[in-house]
Amino acid sequence: MRNTPTADAAVPLQETRSPPQEVPSNRKEPSKEPSGNHQKKSRDRDAVLGLDDLVVDGVDKQHARDWLTLRKAKRLPLTPSAWDAIKAEATKIDMTAAEAVACAVSSSWAGFKAKWVNDAVGGGQKPHATWTLNNADENSKAKALLFGGNKGEVIDV
Asked: Counting CB atoms within 10 angstroms of each CB, which of 34, 55, 115, 144 has the fewest?
């Protein structure tokens, strides 16, 4: 006689197995079918100032246009916070917002710091309205060093 298990003695396979465990995945499944069109979400338009906002603050329209173009090329949108900071820097050296923008445009600055102006001017004085320096004293000193102290002397070579 063979030893054969009886039907009652057999344990069903389902009872002996534990349910499969889920393996955590660090991959995030896309919620939609990818289209290949990966555009950035549009910015809130109220968070970026434009030409009209600068003109309202007294900035010359052409200076404002040039400065915003410069900032755009450097990918620096003009936010209200940035504009407030620039106006505050301008007041530190008794400049208006319009003068600060004109100065920034002529210097190719996307921003504006009072220290930059002080460094460029060479002191704490307010720069000339057209952002030019009066170098008459320096020029006469340089001429005296280069050509000697005699002003009327002509050297014929």
From this structure: 34
